[in-house]
């Protein structure tokens, strides 16, 4: 069965939206749904960045902000690789369907 980390990595290339991502504390992730919620937060933050910054007028700031999201996404991927949860463990999470829909739409 595929690991969720593969999904996280692939999605990094696509859509990414609103909280302070620097406040994400991986030591507080205790269950699969925490991973999904964190992943959704990162997607939402990236989407917000894409909506806020005009790539033509503020390309440097846009790239810096997206890089921050990508770095956190990479950290999340590394975290997921260290745990033993399977894809099935994530399917009962409240945000799983939305995250999955986003991944499938890209």
Please give a structural write-up.
It is a single chain. The protein has 106 residues and is an all-alpha fold. The chain has one domain. Helices cover 63% and strands 0% of the residues. It has helices at 4-12, 32-52, 59-81, 87-90, 96-105. Helix 1 (4-12) runs antiparallel to helix 3 (59-81) and helix 2 (32-52) packs antiparallel against helix 3 (59-81). It is globular, with a radius of gyration of 14 Å. It starts with a helix and ends with a helix.
Summarize the amount of helix as a percent range: 55-70%
Any idea what the shape is?
globular
In quaternary terms, these chains amount to single chain
Q: State the major sheet.
A: none
Strand/helix succession = HHHHH
What's this entry about, in short?
With 106 residues, this protein is an all-alpha fold. It has helices spanning 4-12, 32-52, 59-81, 87-90, 96-105. Helix 1 packs antiparallel against helix 3 (59-81).
Keywords:
mainly alpha, 106 residues
Note the topology.
Layout: H1 4-12, H2 32-52, H3 59-81, H4 87-90, H5 96-105
Helix pairs in contact: 1-3, 2-3
